[in-house]
Write a structure and sequence with these properties.
The protein contains 9 helices and no strands. The protein has a single domain, classed as Orthogonal Bundle (Hypothetical protein af1432). The longest helix is centred in the middle third of the chain and has 16 residues. It is mainly α and 157 residues long. Helix content is 60%, strand content 0%. Bound molecules: fe (ii) ion. Fe (ii) ion binds next to α2.
C-alpha cells in the first residue's frame, strides 16, 4: 500500500488514536506525536528525522497484528510521498529494534546509522502518559513541504 497524499497520511495518523499496545501507557497516536516531538527537541534542524518519528508506526494500522513487518510496511507506504531518506529511517528503526544499538544491520546502514539510532531512542522514550506533545495538525505544514520536495506522485513522465 502506498499513500497518495498528505491528507491520506494525516487520516492514517489520526487512525492511530486509541490503538494500544499491551503494556504501553500511551496509544499509538500519542506515541507518534511524542517520538516526533522528542526528535524536534533533540535534532531541531533535521525535519526528515522528525517526520520519520511521526510516521514510524503506521505499519501497525496498515496491517494490524503483523508486528514484525510493520517497519517495512510503513516505510514502503510513505516512500512515494516523503522520499528515500524517510523510507530508510523508518525501515531502519525496525532493524535497530530487532538487533539493538550497535548491531550489525544498523552499522551496515552507513551514514544513516546514527540517525536511525536517534529515532529508536526517541521511540523508546515516547511512552510518557500525560506528556504534552502537541497535536497532529502541528505537523501538516512540514509534511506538505516534505511531500512537495520528494513526492513522485503526479510526476509526468
Ligand atoms: Fe515506536
Amino acid at each position: 500500500m502506498e499513500l497518495r497524499g498528505v491528507d491520506e497520511l494525516m487520516d492514517l495518523l489520526s487512525g492511530c488514536r486509541g490503538v494500544r499496545t499491551p503494556g504501553d501507557p500511551v496509544d499509538l497516536h500519542e506515541h507518534a506525536l511524542q517520538t516526533a516531538a522528542l526528535l524536534r527537541r533533540g535534532r531541531p534542524a533535521d525535519k526528515e528525522l522528525q517526520i520519520a518519528g511521526l510516521v514510524h508506526e503506521l505499519g501497525r494500522v496498515l496491517r494490524p497484528g503483523d508486528r514484525p513487518a510493520h517497519p517495512d510496511l510503513a516505510a514502503h507506504a510513505v516512500r512515494p510521498l516523503l522520499g528515500d531518506r524517510v523510507f530508510r529511517l523508518v525501515r531502519l528503526h525496525g532493524l535497530a529494534r530487532l538487533h539493538g544499538a550497535g548491531g550489525t544491520p544498523v552499522e551496515a546502514a552507513g551514514p544513516l546509522a546514527e540517525d536511525a539510532l536517534t529515532l529508536r531512542q526517541a521511540h523508546d522514550a515516547a511512552h510518557v502518559p500525560g506528556l504534552d506533545a502537541g497535536v497532529l495538525d502541528d505537523w501538516r505544514t512540514l509534511l506538505e513541504l516534505c511531500a512537495a520536495r520528494h513526492s513522485r506522485l503526479g510526476a509526468v513522465d
